[in-house]
């Protein structure tokens, strides 16, 4: 529903498939009416790996980066600056690992579907990756990485900072 609404624009400037929902409740109703509950889960095959890979990268790089900064004595052990530095490194790792999955998820969510709910452009997760890679090159999987970092970087830094502080308690 989110992707359908975010991709929607005026016909004069529209790029890609347009779903033409009037509002959020209309989008839910339209998707449900056309494709049932399964339609509301379209694209999940791209979203689940995205979250798994992003979370793994976030936690692994945070601990390693924080330890590395402390070992170099750039910041003291337990310093909030070490936590922020670890969070910044982790934010970069999250953006690099999650962006291909974001691109795939967005394409799967936003593609037009037939009456049975099958995608008209991609047959699934792997087909989407292969098509993007072959038509746009590997960098096609990194479209929007700057915007991804601007969204995930601060979120990662703050989440890990608060997590680290709560863990100390």
UniProtKB/TrEMBL annotation:
InterPro entries: MCP_dom_sf, MCP_transmembrane, Mito_Carrier_Antiporter. Keywords: Membrane, Mitochondrion, Mitochondrion inner membrane, Repeat, Transmembrane, Transmembrane helix, Transport. Its main location: mitochondrion. Solcar repeats lie at residues 1-68, 78-169. One of its GO terms (cellular component) is mitochondrial inner membrane. It comes from the Eukaryota. It is a multi-pass membrane protein. SUPFAM superfamilies: Mitochondrial carrier. The keyword Metal-binding does not apply. It is found in: Mitochondrion inner membrane. Belongs to the mitochondrial carrier (TC 2.A.29) family. This is Solute carrier family 25 member 34. The lineage of its organism: Eukaryota, Metazoa, Chordata, Craniata, Vertebrata. The gene is Slc25a34.
